[in-house]
Amino acid sequence: MKKFLFAALTVVFAMSLFSFIAAEKKAAWKIPANYTAMKIQKKGDAASVALGKTLYAKHCKACHGGAGKGDGPKAAALKTAMDDITKPAFKAIPDGNKYFMAFVGRGDMPSFEKKITDEEERWAIINYLNSL
Fold it and tell me: With respect to CATH, is domain 28-131 assigned 3.30.2160.10?
């Protein structure tokens, strides 16, 4: 009976732990309204996309991967699942939300507010992401 009780408690504990981890991986972003209302300043002309690509390679590629598939060398070490930013679901996210996600961050997604301070560079990254 003790073995059964121990096994049952172990299963319940494991399921609780798994549900906590799964919830953390799928938690929706809480984007403040002022970011959701933001509009891209300069639509993706070739120069902006090229600048964004350069900045992406420097700051984002290690986790998000060279093609944005979420398969960068650091992705496997993260607690949260890496999204494929080339999929239609990501493309449908408003640009202001992408801006918040990319520069304010949360959890494994670090803040880049102090690393990338230039607004033109920030929007260039968003333009590049939109071009993938």
Answer: no
